[in-house]
Write a structure and sequence with these properties.
The protein has 323 residues and is mainly alpha-helical. It has 13 helices and two strands; from the N terminus they run H-H-H-H-H-H-H-E-E-H-H-H-H-H-H. The protein folds into two domains: 83 residues, Tyrosine recombinase, N-terminal domain (DNA polymerase, domain 1, Orthogonal Bundle), CATH 1.10.150.130; 179 residues, hpI Integrase, Chain A.
């Protein structure tokens, strides 16, 4: 107990370090909730900024109230943090304070009545189908790197998988005769994703004697690299940054500039499937979305496409008067 009779606040480290409660919360997210590494890293940054703000006000987690939480978010907004990032930061703070209530550390959660920032509604930036063909054509060579890059592009566009899922693939995740690949998604959830004809041919071309074996080192630097589906120039497992660089290079060669990145191919896969009549539940399963509401953003179409589809489908939309 403190001299005032209050319970001592959780121990907080020096500047840049997190309180014990925060560390326990992040550990709980990993062990009990199976949250992704990138999510944990983002939450750690968010909570670090929050606790630094509290210390600047001479406060600890026990002292936080709705006013302090909203002030912190206002400071972050003034620093140029966008609505989407602010919404994630609030989710991190809600998780932290909710965890403290759940553990009996405190009875009050100061984030309960804090309104989440409204992120602007933006359509995914999907490529046109002819642009995808141009991108794939930019990796049409026969070198090991061409074969690798073609397989990466075909798999990302053909399956809609996330870049983190792609670089996590091992050779053993490929079904021998089923044409399916096992994908480890968010929250360590596994799903089976079909490889279409073009994706499968590209992967086989990469795994053939003129592809992956050309990049294999004499001695593997790290355990697990030998099983990695995609390798970098040094013979190690390809990283997320490596895939970004590959796609940017191929996009420039295809004349698409710098607007193509891995998630654009994911968006394009979903948008093109829905445009060709795929059931939204099938697309949800393919992409690994927990909720169909997330998949529904791909059902939005441009005003031009909406008008054209309406005129083609409605019996009285496109006909001339008197017909």
């Amino acid at each position: 107990m403190t001299p005032t009779g209050r319970s001592a606040p959780p121990r907080t480290g020096e500047r840049g370090e997190l309180s014990r409660d925060a560390e326990e919360f992040l550990t709980w997210l990993v062990v009990e909730q199976g949250r992704a590494r990138n999510t944990i890293a983002a939450y750690r940054r968010d909570i670090t900024a929050y606790e630094a703000f509290l210390r600047s006000r001479g406060r600890a987690l026990d002292d936080a109230d709705i006013t302090l939480v909203e002030e912190h978010l206002a400071v972050r907004r003034a620093a140029g943090i966008g609505p989407s990032s602010l919404a994630r930061e609030l989710a991190a703070l809600r998780g932290l304070h909710g965890f403290r209530v759940q553990e009996g550390t405190t009875a009050l959660d100061p984030t309960v009545d804090v309104r989440a920032p409204q992120a602007p509604s933006r359509l995914p930036k999907a490529l046109e189908e002819h642009e995808v063909l141009c991108l794939l054509g930019a990796a049409a060579g026969q070198s090991a790197f061409d074969r690798r890059d073609r397989a990466i592009l075909e798999v990302l566009y053909g399956t809609g998988m996330r870049v983190t899922e792609l670089v996590g693939l091992s050779i053993g995740d490929l079904g021998s005769d089923t044409g399916l690949v096992r994908v480890l998604g968010k929250g360590a959830k596994e799903r089976l994703v079909p490889l279409g004809r073009c994706s499968l041919e590209a992967v086989k071309g990469w795994l053939g004697p003129e592809g992956r074996p050309r990049l294999e080192p004499r001695r593997w630097a790290r355990r697990g690299d030998a099983e990695a589906l995609f390798l970098n120039a040094r013979g190690g497992r390809l990283s997320r940054q490596g895939v970004w660089g590959i796609i940017e290079k191929r996009a420039r060669r295809a004349g698409l500039g710098g607007r193509v990145h891995p998630h654009v191919l994911r968006h394009s896969c979903a948008s093109h499937m829905l445009a060709h009549g795929a059931d939204i539940r099938v697309v949800q399963e393919l992409l690994g979305h927990a909720s169909v509401a997330t998949t529904q953003i791909y059902t939005r179409v441009s005003p031009e496409h909406l008008r054209r589809a309406y005129e083609e489908a409605h019996p009285r939309a496109g006909a001339r008067p008197g017909q």
